[in-house]
Each structure stands twice: as structure tokens, then as C-alpha cells.
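@channel anyone free to eyeball this complex?
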Amino acid sequence: MRYFRFWPALAVISVAACTTAFPQAPNYGNLGRTPSKEEIQAWNQSIGPEGKELPPGSGTAKQGEEIFANKCAACHGPAGEGSQLAPRLVGGRGALNTPTPSRTLANYWPFATTIWDYINRAMPPKQEGSLSASDIFALTAFILYRNDLIPEGQVIDATSLPKVKMPNRDGFIPQRLEDIHDLRARGCGAGHCP
Amino acid sequence: MSSKRSLRRQFLKNGAALAGFAAGAISSPASKLFAADTPSADLHAYGGRSRFENDVRIGSLAMWPIVPGARRDYGFRSPLQDSMGIITPASLHFIISHGHEPPDIDPREHRLMIHGMVDRPLIFTLDEIRRLPAVSRLHFLECHGNSAAAGPTGEPRKALAATVQDTHGLTSCSVWTGVPLSLLLGQVGVQKGASWIVAEGSETGKHTKSIPLEKALDDCLIVYGQNGEALRPEQGYPLRLLVPGWQGINNVKWLRRIYVVDQPYMAMMESTKYPSPRLDGKSRWFESEMGPKSVITRPSGGQQLGARGFYEITGLAWSGGGAVRRVEVSADGGRTWKDAQLQQPIAAKAHTRFGLAWTWNGEEAVLESRCTDDQGHVQPTLSELTKFWGIDADYYRLPPTSADMGNFNAIQPWKVSRDGSVSNALL
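replying in thread with the prediction:
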């Protein structure tokens, strides 16, 4: 119940939860087992915007070019221009204040860490998990370089990737991550936010 | 998919046997009074529907790959036009899985890990989760793109000939059985400073979604049962997250991991696909709650009225903000409204069935319904909604590449023509 003490906004909910979920602060015995640090590390694929969980390894656009040609180009096109099989990864820059905004990676995605996270968990289809951490850093560097977001020689790793500022980082409402969770403070209501 | 095919074969077999039975029995009048026993034991062991009932989900797994000439859709839509009451059969529940097929998970092998900013990270087996005190709750589940006239789900719903399956088929309602997430978070002990959870599925692609801790502790469930039986594979078997009233993307299927953290993790879907662009170039993200919505399911698009006279206008209403308090129905395009009757049970964040007696005089009519929830929020008209968004209705006549605004909940008009045909009159 510790979380309630530190979050006054939850006081009302905590009363309900205590009377329903924890009638006598029950102890469910030894249900569940404690995972080892290695197990947690092996399972934890989530990479947040600060990149805290990014593994060791590194890559450059030049290294990524060859991996892209072998693993990605068949669907995303030789220059990342996209095809009928998969979306474009390079280009599509333009104004967003139109009825038909271009929501490409370079034009829309707010965080570069999302590129690494998504390749790691989902790419290439049917071969998920086959790329090494350094392969993914190199592919991320290649995509960022081809979109003119980093210089060609920049080494992308756990330290440099979270520092890459994406062009549309400030294009979302609310802008600050710490303001997102509170729908009421944001003025959301009846299923809509301003 | 293979189980679906085998079920079809079973029906064909049963159908052929029934037909043979009936043909041989023509000389016996008694057989017309007393229906023949189903000759197959298969339907006794696990029931199926009559061979005369043939509603199915329609759609496609995802936008990619683009198949020339194929229906360009995002997910499989539920046939609301023939829905009865408020429960969606699990076999007809809408499906969105971002292009990923359901994984084939052995429940004995499945594990749920809860870790991150917790005192005691834990790994649970399915058997352990089932030993915990269970709850069953009635909740709708809806894709945030449901009923939207733009974006990846927009094209099928815009057509004049669109049915209610095309327009609103990305919502469904079930009795979900499982364990409150708050109970499991109580077991691991959430630490000071934690404010979000990240839920992760087991499918290829491992969909992840960030959810505020406040919502996780409020009414979220770790679900293993749907409508009295285990979840279906395409609904997350053996374990899924249920986030009542919030955009469907939050309800992570094939749930394997919950990571307690201090900020949203900006996974691909939530940070790049689900934000709703505004005309000023900014995008709303993490809109979360689905607004009050309703739709008439009968008469609805593609249906055909017969003779003039009595019809019941019936449909579904729901709101992510709470329970449905009132549904009004108009037969004159919104000029005058009458209160519809609400059928019990009425549960918070669940489909509610409404009905209103109506006599069709044979003239043109435009049927609409309007939902009000117990927060006092009222379903908007199309012009009210587009005014709020700073656009006009012409926006929705743009090509399918136009920006998709989620949480579209405008009133749906169905036009009844003099010949009794019913068509989509949104645009």
C-alpha cells in the first residue's frame, strides 16, 4: 500500500481498493516466485525515452547500411523509401499543420529511442530477436543519418541515442511527460482532450 | 484459423446429415412436429450455432502489406447489425492486433512477470493467478478508431452502403473474469516515485503500452476469462490486460510482463500511431478515455424495411466515463427526440441496449440516437464534434491518408428511404 502514501490524488481510490482488494491486508502466501536479476534483464525489452535500459553495444550509419540492405531493404525499399510491403523510413518531411500531415519517422516520431525499441522487439518479421544490440544501434544510426538527423560518422549507443532530438519532439500535447497522466488537469472530458 | 476451418467442416458435415435426415422423413408428419436430434455428438461436446446463422467478422489483419484490390482495413469488425442484448460472443468480438497473428501459447508455460519500481518483483504462473480471489465484470472494449470517418479505419465506414458493422464494428462487450491489477501490484509493493506501468504482450512484435499507475490501481483487471470460458486465442489467451473504458490499445493481449516505471515509455504505437493530429500541427496523445457513444443497430445501413407499420428501433450505447444514464432517439434527423427504454443490466463502462417503439409511415426518415452518461456527458453531433476539433465535415471527405482523429463519437444518422432501404447518412 506504500504507493498511496506518496500520491495524495489516489486517496479516494485507496479507500475503495482497501475495502475491496485488501479487506484484511491478506497475505496470499508464497504465490509467485522471485525472478533472478538475469531473468529480469532477459525479459525486460522496454526502452524508455531516457534510454536507461539500452544495452552495451554501438553502431554507425556505415555499418548499418549493409545490415539494412540485407535485412530491411526487401520490404522498406533500398533507400528506406517504403513499398507495398512496409512503410517508408526515410524522408516524408513537411509541415504538420495540414489536413494530411506526413506521419513518417523523421517527420513525426518524438523519440529516437522508439526506433531502437521497435526494431528490437518487432523486426525483421518472423526473425524477431535475430539482430544483435550493435546491429540495432547501427540500423538506428543508418535511419537517422539518411534522414539528416545525425552526421554520417556519429557513433550511436546507449549514451548518444537518447540525446538525439527528433524534429517533432515538441509537437505533442501535453509536451511534458510528467503532465500526461492527469486527464483532468489536461482538461480532457467526455472522451476528448483539447 | 485452422480451428475455424475445422468448425466449418463440422457444420457442413452436420448440415449434410440433417438434410439427409429431413429428406428421409418426409413421409412422417411427426418429424415436422418434433425436430430431429442432431446426429452429431460434436455439438453436444462443444456447442456451435445453427447452420442458418452465418454472421462473421469482416476486415483484414492490418494495413500492411498493401494488397492491390483488397479491402484496406485495420482489424476485424464485429457484426453489430444482428447483435442481441449487450454481450458479444467471444467468437465475434472485434480484433485489432496490429498485424500480428495470435501466438499459440501453452498455459502451463505462460508466465506474468511484474518488476521495475517494486519491493518484490514476482513471476506468476497462470495457475497461481487463478488461485487468487477472482472478479467478473461487464465491460465494453473499443478501438479508438471505431466509427471514425478518417484514418486507417475510416474508409469502410464512409460509404453510403456502409453497415453498422462497417461503421461501429470495432466495439464489443463481454463479462471479463480475472484478478484486479491492484491486488497483484499490492503483492509486489509499488515504490515511491512510480507513476506508470508498461504492459507487454507475447505476440511477435510484443506490443507494449504505457498506462498511468492511477488507472492501473483504479479498475484494471488481469483477465483470463471471457463470457464464462477461457479467453479465445485472438482475444489474448491465456492472459490479457483489461483497462475499462479506455482506448482498446491499452488492453494488452497475451500479457507477459508489467514494468512499473516513473514515466510513459513511448512505445511505437502509443507515441507514433495513436496520437490524434490537430490542424495546427500539434497532436493530442494518450487521450485514453472513450467518450459517450451510441448507434442504432436495427434498422441500420444495408437493411431493408418491409411494409410500413411497427418497428422497434434498437441499438447499443456505452461510455468510457461511466454508466449510460439516458439514450434519446430521433426519427426526423435530430429535430425532435424521444427517450428510449434502457434494458437491464446497465453497468458502468459497458454496452447498454436501448429500444424505442416506432411506426414507419412509409416516408423518408433519418434515425439517430444520442447517449448521455452518468457524468452528464452527452454524445455530440458531427458538427459539434468537428467544431470542437476546429475542422469542418468536409475534412472527412478527404482521401484516406488524412489525419485520423481517434475517439470519434458523433451521432450516427441512418436514412430510411421510401423504398424501405436504409443507408449511411453521416456525410
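from a first look: Confidence is low (pLDDT under 50) at residues 1-25 of chain A.
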